[in-house]
Design brief:
3-stranded antiparallel β-sheet; Helicase, Ruva Protein, domain 3; Tetrahydropterin Synthase, Chain A; Transl_elong_EFTs/EF1B_dimer; elongation factor; translation elongation factor activity; flat; cytoplasm; alpha+beta; 291 residues
C-alpha cells in the first residue's frame, strides 16, 4: 500500500478542486497513483474538470514569429532565472529573434538550433553573449516550426509571454491571401485558443486513446445510475458529445460570441471572402509546461 502523503492529497486537490477528504479516499483507492485517483474522482462525479498540474520552472517567456506572407512561423520557449529578466524587452526580443531563426532555418532540435546562423554568428554564440550581457543563465526549452502551402497563420501572446499560440488556416484558393478580414478572424481564433485551451482542432484529431479513456469514465458514471445498459450507452455517448463541444476547437462556442462556434465563424469569413477557409491546426504553449 502506497503512503498517502499530505503533499499528494494537496496536489490532487489543486488539480481537481475536490474536497480534501474525497481526494484522500480517491488516492487510497488508487494506491497513490494520482492519475488513477483523478479518474476515481471523475467517476464519482466530484471532479468535473482537471487542471494541468504545474511543475516548478525557472522564469522566462514564449515568443512567436510569423512570416510576412503568413505561410511559415514558429513558437519558442526561452527560460531565464528571474521574472525581472523574463519581462525585459532585450530578453523577450532575443526570444523573438530565435523564433524567427527556427521559422527560417528549420532546425531539428535545440542542438541544431545552436548551430544555426544569427546576425553573422551562431545562435550558440549569440546566446552566450546574451547570458553575459544580462547576467543570468538562459536556456531554449523547446520550439516548434509550422508551415502551410495554401493558407496563412497568425500568432498570439498572452499573460506577458507566459501563454502563446499559433493558429494555422488553410485556403481552397491560393490567391485568397492573408487579407485584413482574414487576419482579424485568425487573431480572434488565436485569442480564443489561449482562453479555452482546446485539446484538438477537430474531433477526428483527438487521439483514440483519449476518446477511449473518456468513454471509460462516462460509462462508469452511467453505470452508477442503475439504468438499463442501452440507456447507459446513450448517456455515455451524450457525455462524449459534450466533451467534444467543450474541448475540440472547431466545435467550441466562440469566446466573444457564444451564439456561434469556431466552425461557424470560419464559414462566415469563408462566405465573405469567397473561399473555403478551414482552421487546419494550432500550437499552444504554456510556460513551464512539458511538451
Amino acid at each position: 500500500m502506497a503512503q498517502i502523503t499530505a503533499a499528494l492529497v494537496k496536489q490532487l486537490r489543486e488539480m481537481t478542486d475536490s474536497p480534501m477528504m474525497e481526494c484522500k479516499k480517491a488516492l487510497v483507492e488508487a494506491d497513490g497513483d494520482i492519475e488513477k485517483a483523478v479518474d476515481v474522482l471523475r467517476t464519482m462525479g466530484i471532479a468535473k474538470a482537471v487542471k494541468r498540474a504545474g511543475r516548478d520552472t525557472n522564469e522566462g517567456t514564449i515568443a512567436t514569429y510569423v512570416s510576412e506572407d503568413g505561410k511559415t512561423g514558429a513558437i519558442l520557449e526561452l527560460s531565464c532565472e528571474t521574472d525581472f529578466v523574463g519581462t525585459n524587452p532585450k530578453f523577450t526580443g532575443f526570444a523573438a529573434d530565435l523564433a524567427k531563426v527556427v521559422a527560417e532555418q528549420n532546425p531539428a532540435d535545440v542542438e541544431a538550433l545552436k548551430a544555426c546562423s544569427m546576425n553573422g554568428e551562431t545562435v550558440e554564440s549569440a546566446l552566450t553573449e546574451m547570458i553575459h550581457v544580462i547576467g543570468e543563465n538562459m536556456k531554449v526549452l523547446r520550439f516548434q516550426r509550422v508551415a502551410v502551402e495554401n493558407g496563412a497563420m497568425t500568432g498570439y501572446i498572452h499573460l506577458g509571454g507566459k501563454l502563446a499560440d499559433i493558429v494555422v488556416c488553410e485556403f481552397s484558393k491560393p490567391e485568397t491571401g492573408a487579407t485584413d478580414e482574414f487576419k482579424t478572424f485568425a487573431h480572434d481564433v488565436a485569442m480564443h485558443i489561449a482562453a479555452t485551451a482546446p485539446v484538438a482542432t477537430t474531433r477526428e484529431d483527438v487521439p483514440a486513446a483519449t476518446v477511449e479513456h473518456e468513454m471509460s469514465i462516462y460509462k462508469a458514471q452511467a453505470a452508477e445510475s442503475g439504468k438499463p445498459e442501452a440507456i447507459q450507452e446513450r448517456m455515455a455517448q451524450g457525455r462524449l458529445e459534450k466533451y467534444f463541444k467543450e474541448f475540440v476547437l472547431c466545435e467550441q462556442e466562440f469566446v466573444k460570441d457564444s451564439s456561434v462556434t469556431i466552425d461557424v465563424l470560419a464559414k462566415k469569413v469563408s462566405k465573405s471572402l469567397g473561399d473555403d477557409i478551414k482552421v487546419k491546426t494550432f500550437v499552444l504553449y504554456r510556460f513551464g509546461e512539458e511538451a
